[in-house]
Specification:
15 helices, alpha/beta, two-stranded antiparallel sheet, single chain, 10-stranded mixed sheet, Rossmann fold, about 35% helix, 12 strands, globular
Length: about 400
């Protein structure tokens, strides 16, 4: 079950080359455009080393094609946005998450209720079936950011992830404005979680407001972000957030206080509040961390604080082995010393809406950085999360 539609801010600078001014302005609203992945894969596989995308793969009228004809269907009750990680080409993102949806369609909770391609005959039948109830289907789309597919570009990809946070927020805001009002859920892998956490951080600090031209919808959106709504269905910006092998520092999702009994009270004295703590606490209904201690790819990031100086002193020898991480450590001594969430259970002082899932225990085998998508047991756990009620 391949995901047909990906929203992306890749290759935006080339939109002006093949589109008229009016078309270009329409495509650039929100900072992203949609790509028909069937058309893109046809183009990519004919070229193999293609770095840009032709006009023919871009969905010019996404309001009709993606939203009205697909996501706004009354049978859709959940929308899941899939965000890839570091060092991922566009075609790889589509292939990787399509493996996950292929696995999810066999799960007990979502069996025969997954829709990824509204032009596929099976999905068309589901969307038009009299035997499918309103809000019973789960729709999947992708979001791809400019991760350049180069293993040596860890730091530049981190910068791209930060700058893409606003764009993802705009996409979610657009889905939040749909009349069928589906739940909005995120599944992010690796550095895609770094992107999502920065999005929540920017929103909760009111550093940015998502793009929404409709005044009524914008007001409703602001209520979600400011947490003015009491009901669970209207309370969160993202209802369920599933983190697969998150490349996010554990410390950044914690709050350290002097007196535990005062957490959340006006007299609370915090010694440290992680930069992602408040966004996850206030803007997300459920946060689920899937981790594996056999994740070798996250070892690049998992430098402990104690040996940091020794690592920096050995800079010359280790530069090539660490893909430039030494320079980053030297400039930012507080950034890269604690373990990643994707390597272990979340700390006990993380946000209260966070739950960790041991991928190794679930699967009964070692799980590497990219092994989450084809484990039947992990898919069952993800599916049960997606259909679970909010509190």
């Amino acid at each position: 079950m391949s995901i047909r539609y990906f929203a992306t801010n890749r290759d935006c600078e080339n939109l002006g080359r093949e589109f008229s001014r009016g078309e270009r302005l329409g495509l650039q609203k929100g900072g992203y455009h949609f790509v028909d992945m069937e058309a893109y894969m046809s183009y990519y596989l004919s070229e193999v080393d293609a770095k840009t995308m032709p006009k023919s793969v871009i969905v010019n009228k996404s309001q009709e094609t993606v939203f009205k004809e697909f996501l706004e269907n009354e049978k859709i009750g959940r929308v899941v946005i899939c965000v890839h990680g570091f060092c991922v080409n566009f075609h790889d993102a589509q292939s990787w998450y399509s493996i996950l949806t292929d696995t999810l369609k066999h799960s007990k909770s979502l069996k025969d209720k997954v829709v990824t391609d509204p032009k596929n005959q099976n999905d068309i039948a589901l969307l038009n079936s009299n035997n499918v109830k309103k809000r019973e289907l789960t729709a999947f789309i992708g979001f791809s950011w400019p991760s350049n597919g180069n293993v040596l570009s860890y730091l530049s990809d981190q910068g791209e992830a930060r700058s893409s946070a606003n764009v993802l927020a705009n996409l979610i805001a657009r889905i939040r404005g749909m009349l069928n009002n589906p739940s909005v859920n995120l599944i992010c892998h690796s550095m895609g979680n770094f992107l999502a956490c920065h999005m929540f951080k920017q929103l909760v600090k009111e550093e940015s407001i998502p793009y929404e031209p409709d005044a009524t919808k914008l007001e409703a959106l602001k209520k979600r972000i400011s947490r003015d709504t009491a009901e669970p269905e209207g309370k969160y910006f993202v209802d369920r957030y599933i983190m697969l092998a998150p490349d996010v520092e554990r410390r950044h999702v914690t709050k350290c206080v002097k007196i535990l009994d005062n957490i959340g009270e006006n007299n609370e004295e915090a010694q440290y509040v992680g930069q992602f703590y408040s966004g996850l606490e206030h803007l997300v209904g459920q946060v689920h961390n899937f981790y594996s201690r056999f994740d070798g790819a996250l070892a690049i990031s998992n430098f402990e604080k104690a040996p940091r100086k020794a690592i920096v002193s050995a800079k010359g020898m280790l530069d090539k082995l660490t893909f430039g991480m030494i320079d980053f450590l030297e400039r930012n001594p507080d950034e890269k010393w604690e373990q990643r969430l994707g390597s272990s259970q979340h700390p006990i002082i993380a946000t209260r809406n966070m739950k960790s899932h041991n991928a190794v225990e679930l699967s009964g085998r070692e799980i590497g950085h990219s092994d989450y998508v084809d484990s039947k047991e992990i898919a069952e756990e993800i599916a049960s999360i997606l259909v679970s009620p909010l509190e």
